[in-house]
Write a structure and sequence with these properties.
4 helices, mainly beta, globular, 22-stranded parallel beta sheet, 60 strands, single chain, 17-stranded mixed beta sheet
Length: about 500
């Protein structure tokens, strides 16, 4: 696994990408071309901050191949940012060659039998190829050549063609060429892509929408709505929109994958998951994470009243960084972000509402904590029935939590353990952590157990400056962002 330090550095870079021009960038936009020299189809910056007008770019692509680099004569920019949409229909190719990262924040449409080449980390380190919320690459001709960091990608345009390709070569590299409406596939009763993924699935910011699955009658015990397991490799920049999943047997189910031993980067899932069975387990993104979940998110409504549930990850034994969850979770053991954390969670948050019945263990971020959580927060309400264990951030914990906070209302039935931050604490370590005594409705930070390093603050106090111990390089406050509560600079609240 990558070290926590490496992940943190990469996270700061990802934050920088969301603000074009904040550092030395070559930006493709509707603004006038400035500080860039284009000759014979090769464009290089003449200043660390440069702009290439989309109209000028389209005109060049109509006449020949175009290569855009961040390296000019005697100077070095860092990233290439596509800030405005553009398209071309000729057979000429486009190369984006960045010292660090290439990020696409607006649609790019490739209409001809062309070629697209993307190179990141050409001299730098920690760079990524990423798509913003409105960014995607629509490649109309599947014969188009796509190369990312020296690897060739086969283009696919449906779930079935992707499944077939992976079955033929599990270690291959595949890219979703355009948005795909999976409602035409009908309702799946088996995992759409059952072959363990060993290569790379590149979503290119495109969405697979309306994928429906009813696993009540299936024979297998566990399943993902998209893929079964990630044994190695990665799924990147993939969006699953409006998934609908129903199951009726005891097992673990997830919106993207059951098990991840690779890397899930900048992926997202929205939809509804339901299961009436006892011991059913649901999670928005992945059931069990053994490696990396980076900059990914979910907005799902999970109803597993007799089982387990989490907005993003069921059981985490790896790293979750810069990620978040929205929506709602109803489960006996449930967390807004994670059901059970045995790994490392950093700079992540949940706004999901979490609800449990009799004897439930529920938390705004983590249901149970046996790993480490740092620089994270939860804002959703958390409730349980009689004899439940309820915590604004974590239901039950026995391990470290640092520089984190919770503000959600907490409640439970008779004989419940209710804490504004932790429901039940056993042998854990808490440093520079806080809960809102106003919004939570309680002056008790823990329902059972006493910890130092945990402080209750009023709403006004939490909104009046960063709490003690919060690093201003990681956290910030703004009355117009996150309702004035602290937010993560590298992982700001979803809009």
């Amino acid at each position: 696994m990558r070290s926590h330090r490496t992940l943190f550095i990469t996270l700061l870079l990802w934050a920088a990408l969301s603000a074009p021009g904040a550092i030395a960038d070559v930006v493709i936009s509707t603004n006038a071309t400035e500080n860039i020299s284009c000759s014979s189809g090769v464009c290089v910056p003449t200043d660390a901050d440069a702009v290439l007008n989309v109209g000028d770019l389209q005109n060049m692509l109509a006449a020949g191949n175009v290569s855009i680099s961040t390296t000019g004569a005697g100077l070095q920019a860092n990233n290439i940012v596509v800030a405005s949409k553009f398209a071309w229909k000729t057979n000429f190719g486009l190369t984006l060659d960045a010292y660090d990262s290439v990020t696409v924040d607006s649609p790019v449409t490739v209409k001809g039998k062309s070629s697209v080449t993307v190179q990141t980390n050409n001299g730098g380190t920690g760079g990524v190829f990423a798509f913003g919320p409105k960014g995607r690459m629509d490649i109309r001709n599947l014969a188009t050549s796509l190369s990312i960091n020296g690897a060739s990608f086969a283009l696919v345009n449906s779930v079935s063609t992707l499944a077939s390709a992976i079955k033929s070569d599990p270690s291959g590299n595949y890219a979703l060429a355009a948005n795909y409406d999976a409602s035409r596939d009908g309702t799946y009763i088996n995992i759409p892509i059952p072959t363990p993924v060993e290569g790379v699935i590149q979503g290119l910011g495109n969405a697979i929408a309306n994928l429906s699955a009813d696993y009540e009658k299936r024979k297998e015990a566990a399943g993902g709505t998209f893929v079964g397991t990630m044994s190695t490799g990665s799924i990147e920049n993939m969006r699953l929109v409006n998934e609908k999943v129903h199951v009726g047997r005891q097992s673990q189910w997830a919106g993207l994958a059951v098990g991840n031993e690779g890397i899930l980067f900048n992926d997202s899932v929205t939809g509804v998951f339901k299961g009436e069975c006892s011991s059913c387990g649901f999670s928005g993104l992945v059931s069990i994470n053994y490696n990396q979940v980076l900059y990914s998110w979910s907005n799902v409504n999970i109803a597993a009243p007799n089982g387990f549930g989490a907005g993003l990850v069921g059981s985490n034994a790896g790293n979750i960084v810069g990620s978040h969850a929205q929506g709602s979770v109803k489960a006996v053991l449930g967390g807004g972000l994670i059901t059970n954390n045995e790994g490392f969670v950093d700079q992540s948050y949940s706004t999901a509402r979490v609800e449990g019945g009799k004897g439930a263990v529920v938390g705004g971020l983590n249901g149970e904590e046996a790993g480490t959580t740092t620089d994270s927060y939860a804002t959703g309400s958390v409730s349980g029935g009689d004899g439940s264990t309820v915590g604004g951030l974590t239901g039950k914990t026995e391990s470290p939590t640092n520089t984190s906070y919770s503000i959600g209302a907490v409640s439970g039935g008779d004989s419940s353990l209710i804490g504004g931050f932790i429901g039940k604490e056993t042998a854990s370590s808490v440093q520079n952590c806080y809960w809102d005594t106003d919004t939570s409705g309680t002056d008790e930070g823990t329902g059972e157990g006493n910890v130092s390093g945990l402080t209750g603050l009023t709403t006004q106090q939490l909104q009046s400056g960063l709490p003690a111990g919060f690093d201003p390089n990681i956290w910030a406050e703004d009355p117009k962002i996150n309702n004035g509560f602290p937010y993560l600079i590298a992982n700001p609240p979803a809009k």
